[in-house]
Amino acid sequence: MADKKITLDEYMAMPIGAPYQYINGFLIDWPSRTVPHQIALGNFVAAIINYEDKIQNRGIYLIGPIEVILDDKNSYKPDFIYIAKERRDILKDYIYGAPDLVVEILWEKNAYYDLRPKKDIYEKYGVKEYIIIDPIQQNADLYMLKDGAYILGQKAQLGEVLKSLQLPDFDIEVSKLFQ
């Protein structure tokens, strides 16, 4: 699965938009996203825009791919991130540090990485909430950081509502993610 061991400097010297992620010191192939992936992402972002219009939180919401550099062996391109306004100092040309919320949308080429090594690193570096949306199973899992470890805060199925703990009053019907 891992293609080639390289350094962070070698990874960052690659052209912007190169189809890779840098996971545990390895350059991992990351091909284009699928239509179901993009539908779920677009519907999640639409819900976030409606939410932000209501509450005017003034945090930073970014749609991936955007480089999130966590350490010298891990730089990811999550599908969506939120950074609280008081933590804007991690914003530079890229994101240097853990966002408050990360959303990853699974697809067959990346599921292992999003569910295992990336989840472990997000946990290690203090991403407070990690949402994994699965277009194939049509569900969403929300992990929350408690005492330095992720616990499953919610497993939302079709017909249920996914409720963020990091963004007060943000929720979305899981079925709307996949329409």
Write up what this structure looks like.
Helix content is 25%, strand content 34%. The protein has helices spanning 8-12, 35-55, 111-115, 117-125, 174-177, and strands at 4-5, 20-23, 26-29, 60-63, 68-71, 74-76, 80-83, 95-96, 101-105, 129-134, 139-146, 149-156, 161-163, 171-173. The chain has 5 helices and 14 strands. The model has no long low-confidence stretch (mean pLDDT 93). The longest helix is centred in the first third of the chain and has 21 residues, at 35-55. The strands form 4 sheets. A 6-stranded mixed sheet has the order 4-7-9-10-11-12. Strands 1-3-2 form a 3-stranded antiparallel sheet, with no helix packed on it. It is globular, with a radius of gyration of 16 Å. With 179 residues, the chain is α+β, with helices and mostly antiparallel strands.
N-to-C order of helices and strands:
EHEEHEEEEEEHHEEEEEH
**Helix/strand structural class:** alpha+beta
Could you report the average pLDDT, rounded to the nearest whole number?
93
Report the C-alpha radius of gyration, rounded: 16 Å
**Envelope shape:** globular
- Quaternary state of this entry equals single chain
Number of helices: 5
Kindly estimate the percentage of residues that lie in beta strands according to DSSP: 25-35%
